[in-house]
Amino acid sequence: MPKVNYNNESYQISRKKTGLEFLDSVEIEDKNLILGMKINNKLYDLNQTIDNDCKLEYVKINQPAGNRIYKRSLFILMAKAIYQIYGEEILNIEHSLSNGIYCELSNNIVLSKSELETIENKMKDIVKKDYQIKSHLLKSDQGLSYLERQGNQEKIRIIKQKNMEEIKLYEVDGYYNYYYYPLVPNTGYLDKFKLHYHFPGFVLLYPKKDRPDQIERFIDQPKLADIFYEYEKLGDILRVGTVPDLNDYITSNNYGELIRISEGLHEKNIANIADKIASQKEKKRVILIAGPSSSGKTTFTKRLSTQLRINGLKPVAISTDDYFVNRDKTPIDKDGNYDFESLYAINLELFNEHLVKLMRGEEVRLPEFNFKTGMREDSDNVLKLSNDQPILIEGIHSLNNELTEFIPEDHKYKIFISALTQLNIDKQNRIPTSDTRLIRRMVRDNYYRGHSALDTIEMWQRVRNGEEQNIYPYQENADIMFNSALIYEFAVLKNCAVPLLEKIDKNNKYYYEALRLLEVLENFKEMPYEDVPNISILREFIGGSVYRKQ
Predict the structure, then answer these.
(1) Percent of the chain clearing pLDDT 90 (strictly above)
(2) Is residue 252 part of a domain?
(3) Residue 130 pLDDT > 60, yes or no?
(4) Do the beta carbons of residue 511 and residue 505 sit within 8 Å?
(5) Are 418 and 482 contained in the same domain?
(6) What CA–CA distance (Å, rounded) separates 483 from 274?
(7) Residue 197 in this model has a pLDDT that exceeds 90
(8) What is d(CA 430, CA 424) in angstroms, rounded to the nearest whole number?
(9) Coil, strand, or helix at residue 328?
(10) Nearest to 69 by CA among 210, 225, 175, 184
């Protein structure tokens, strides 16, 4: 008889039970928020049988893992509804957009609003019928036959490339599909969603973890949408729309062209940005660069500086870190820790005063922050700018107008940079854009700082929370956006990331997250990193960058 350690109490169960059955037998608040469970730090759906002694933890929608379960479960709900209406497997789940997920239909189908309403009503009908979402562990041939019957070619390709002996498929009322993440037990759980019309497709809106009962209205972000569209065009040019396409390049040893074209697009876009700045050089004197963690801001700024010099300019970089207030003036966060990511950790008045003086052609002695003493000190760096010297400012607050409030708007040029991955595992298993940055940071922190993958994962949610507060609300303020994602980078990062993730102990509470990332990386064939150019943004993370002393 299995013994279950739940909430620091031990329960002896008389027979094997599913997670749902055990849930009915214990007292717990907000049972309606529970969507999945962890058994010995591995994530499962609630229909999983508990058949051995274990430590059990339930997962709620207001937690990152639970919110991801809800979102992924909406994917199979959409796929089922669209398959019923059209009789074909034509749902393409593309990428995040604003506060939702952008989707399209294959076969050049451009939806009308009434057709989208039909899909939404079909989804609501499936929710109302409360079908069980069953999981089946099948022999590979049997599972592939189900997918073949439904015309799910992309999933068939990735499964064959992985040489899987068994396949876990989820079923909703006779409809089968493959998803690499646990789903909710029944469609009745999925009553909170909305489809927002966004030509030529639509955006799936779903509850966020901090507001699990609400569907927020769609916030249009046309500049961000354009970046994803450009990435999609690159995929069309290279004929790389999903991971199986990339794997074909790698197995045929044709990835050299893939690298050259991807890197060439980066260089072209950086040069275009420099040309735009140079064409307005009399006015655009302050160049502001912002983006979330591990976007490649350092390399981007260096490469932009090179392109500006080609245009006859002599850019000067100023660090906002040197304008930190003294330690005793640093804001405190809700946990009582110093909040160095707060805008008010910077002496805004002094920073703006120096910027104004520099733009007037006056001489300024720049400060230097002593991180050991926590005090700002005068440096030997005295700066006086000529008209051909724009100021480059890189930092998380750069797009927040309050950072440079003394500088007229027409004297600023704002750049938002992020790694906006659009390469998905298949047409319905997407890779979150934040996973690119997380894996980049994991590799970089280990290479340069000696941190473990666990160290990076443990602090990642705090990093994400800071981004939500300090960066994303201002991203549409940018004059231009730069996508630092490289279509081939997961195949390179896999070499470094997998050994780091495999070191995370199964007894650690973040073991489930290591398994998730390993499952994402498992889909990629490895690509050697020797062919990555030494000016590549990717080199900022894997080492070998010409812009950084090794």
Answers:
(1) 75
(2) yes
(3) yes
(4) yes
(5) yes
(6) 15
(7) yes
(8) 5
(9) helix
(10) 184
- Are 113 and 248 in a shared domain? no
**pLDDT (0 to 100) of residue 378:** 86
Burial-class residue 15 by CB neighbours within 10 Å (0-12, 13-18, 19+). exposed
Positive or negative CA dihedral for 136, 193, 83, 72?
Answer: negative
Burial of 430 (0-12, 13-18, 19+ CB in 10 A): buried
Interhelix angle 489-501/433-449, rounded to 10 degrees, is: 60
Considering the domain architecture, whether residues 203 and 244 belong to the same structural domain is answered as: no
Domain stop point among 28, 60, 92: 60
Sign, CA dihedral 136-140-145-147, equals: positive
Residue 550 pLDDT > 70, yes or no? no
Query: What is the model's pTM?
Result: 0.92
| Separation between Cα atoms, residue 541 and residue 165, nearest integer Å | 34
What average pLDDT score do residues 306-317 get? 96
Task: Quote the CA–CA distance of 87 and 90 in Å, as a whole number.
Answer: 9
The whole-number average pLDDT for the span 10-22 is: 87
CB atoms under 10 Å from CB of 113, counted, come to 11
How big is the chain, counted in residues? 550
Number of domains into which the chain is organized: 3
Start-to-end Cα distance in the chain:
56
Cα dihedral 190, 194, 198, 200, rounded to 10, equals: 40
Nearest to 69 by CA among 173, 170, 197, 198: 170
Sign of the C-alpha dihedral computed for residues 264, 224, 96 and 340 taken in this order: positive
pLDDT at 402: 95
Place of tokens 């998380």: 396
Residue 264: domain span: 239-279+411-542
Q: H or E segment at 368?
A: strand 364-370
Contact 538, 262 (CB under 8 A): no
- Sequence-distant (≥ 6) Cβ neighbours of residue 91 within 8 angstroms: 78, 79, 82, 83, 103, 105, 106, 427, 428
Residue 255, domain member (yes or no): yes
For residues 395 and 343, what is the distance between their CA atoms, to the nearest angstrom? 10
Q: Where do we find the tokens 């050994």?
A: 499
Beta partners for residue 383, in sequence order = 364
Residue ranges in 408-510 assigned as alpha helix (H): 433-449, 453-470, 489-501
Residue 548: band (very low, low, confident or very high) from pLDDT cuts 50, 70, 90: confident
The answer to whether 58 and 23 have CB atoms below 8 angstroms apart is: yes
List of E strands, 324-405:
364-370, 375-383, 391-394
* Helix-helix angle 222-238:255-279, to 10 degrees: 140
Do residues 38 and 96 both lie within one domain?
no
